[in-house]
DNA sequence: AAATTTTCTCTAACACAGTTAGCATAATTG
DNA sequence: CAATTATGCTAACTGTGTTAGAGAAAATTT
């Protein structure tokens, strides 16, 4: 993913090379260390070339963020198709969220402007994020048919609980053991889902 | 807090001037806009002077962060002294946390490396943060005398729930109405406290 | 009072950041 | 072959954190 040959490369190829390099640097050195010049060096181009693919660093980060939300959305839809029991669905969705944040922390960080990642473009306006929200709201609605406002409140609660634990576990990863955090997360999310009926 | 006269100023005076200016800029333009030169301009000094008071920007941010945790700790202690009922205590502490994040979002952001604020120094090692944790753990212990591990787990849960809602409400402040978020927060925290007994 | 030292503050510079303008070369088209 | 388009570069601008070293002013000593 790092040292890409320069010779045979189409436009889409270069674009994904930029994204991949940005993610690789962020994973290795943190988002603060991600610079246009460093990306350009890695893909063996000069800095201005990057601007042929992304209008600004902000737009690049936004693209990576949207990619993250789209990936998450796909995973959620997979879960929805896999299980029929609404409770099982929501619980498994919760686990997917945890695993995603564990396996690709740099993506999770840019999605929520965490730990030095900073994208000016408001995340609320992202269609991908809306789509994720819709899937979860539908799942909640599927076993608790309530008013739109009530569903929104429950979704907000679920989201906050999950995101709170994930971002806190990231913050304390040196002090608190991952296994324990994960156990608490599982228990809490299971309890949350149970509490819905 | 912005245009400070230069004439009569002691060392402590200048130090707090730097901190105050940094906070003011962060509040007005976000943490990403906080630069050493801008701070120096505001206090009518040249940039290197700032380094006489703080070894680096990182240290400056860490100081502001610790200040935030110390302030929060004081508020928590005030609540503990004010109420005898443990449930009331924890609930009021939760509300203090919300109000703090509402009234001084820039401080809350630097405390958790949110929204462009980025301090390299690990927050876990902060004594002030530990002190805050101790107070909350004690409060939880005061009406649920369990093992250290259980208390730690409950504290983690409480913290995650509170922090999750606060940071999410910050993220969605344009979409979701503050009043509704606050209502959900109050309900959730009350339910959490109730659920402890 | 003169000389010396210490204190205070500044300018200049370095490497790096995001970003843009303009030029050179290569590929394609007529 | 000539003209045009595409491609990628260098150089530059402003702004960032940070450091070195110069210079003035104040305090101290002789």
UniProtKB/TrEMBL annotation, chains A, B:
Task: Kindly give the InterPro entries that the UniProt entry links to this protein.
Answer: Homeodomain-like_sf, HTH-type_Tx_Regulator, HTH_TetR, Tet_transcr_reg_TetR-rel_C_sf
List UniProt keywords, sorted A-Z.
Answer: DNA-binding
Q: What PROSITE patterns does the record tag this protein with?
A: HTH_TETR_2 (PS50977)
Feature: DNA-binding region: 35-54
| The UniProt record lists the keyword DNA-binding | yes
Query: Residue ranges of the HTH tetR-type domain?
Result: 12-72
GO: which molecular function terms? Answer: DNA binding
- Cite a single Pfam family from the UniProt record: TetR_N
PANTHER family (UniProt xref)? ACREF/ENVCD OPERON REPRESSOR-RELATED, ACREF_ENVCD OPERON REPRESSOR-RELATED
Q: What is this protein called?
A: TetR/AcrR family transcriptional regulator
The record lists the organism as Spirosoma terrae
């Amino acid at each position: 993913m790092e040292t890409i040959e320069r010779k045979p490369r189409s436009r889409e190829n270069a674009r994904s090379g930029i994204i991949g390099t940005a993610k690789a640097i962020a994973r290795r050195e943190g988002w603060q260390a991600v610079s246009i010049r460093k990306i350009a060096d890695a893909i063996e181009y000069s800095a201005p070339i990057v601007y042929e693919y992304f209008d600004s660093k902000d737009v690049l980060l936004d693209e990576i963020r949207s990619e993250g939300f789209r990936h998450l959305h796909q995973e959620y839809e997979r879960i929805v198709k896999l299980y029929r029991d609404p409770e099982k669905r929501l619980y498994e969705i919760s686990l997917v969220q945890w695993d995603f944040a564990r396996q690709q922390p740099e993506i999770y960080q840019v999605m929520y402007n965490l730990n030095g990642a900073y994208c000016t473009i408001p995340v609320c306006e992202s269609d991908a994020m809306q789509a994720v929200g819709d899937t979860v709201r539908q799942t909640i609605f599927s076993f608790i048919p309530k008013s739109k406002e009530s569903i929104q409140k429950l979704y907000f609660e679920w989201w906050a609980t999950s995101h709170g634990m994930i971002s806190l576990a990231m913050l304390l990863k040196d002090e608190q053991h991952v296994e324990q955090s994960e156990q608490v997360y599982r228990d809490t999310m299971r309890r949350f889902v149970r509490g819905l009926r």
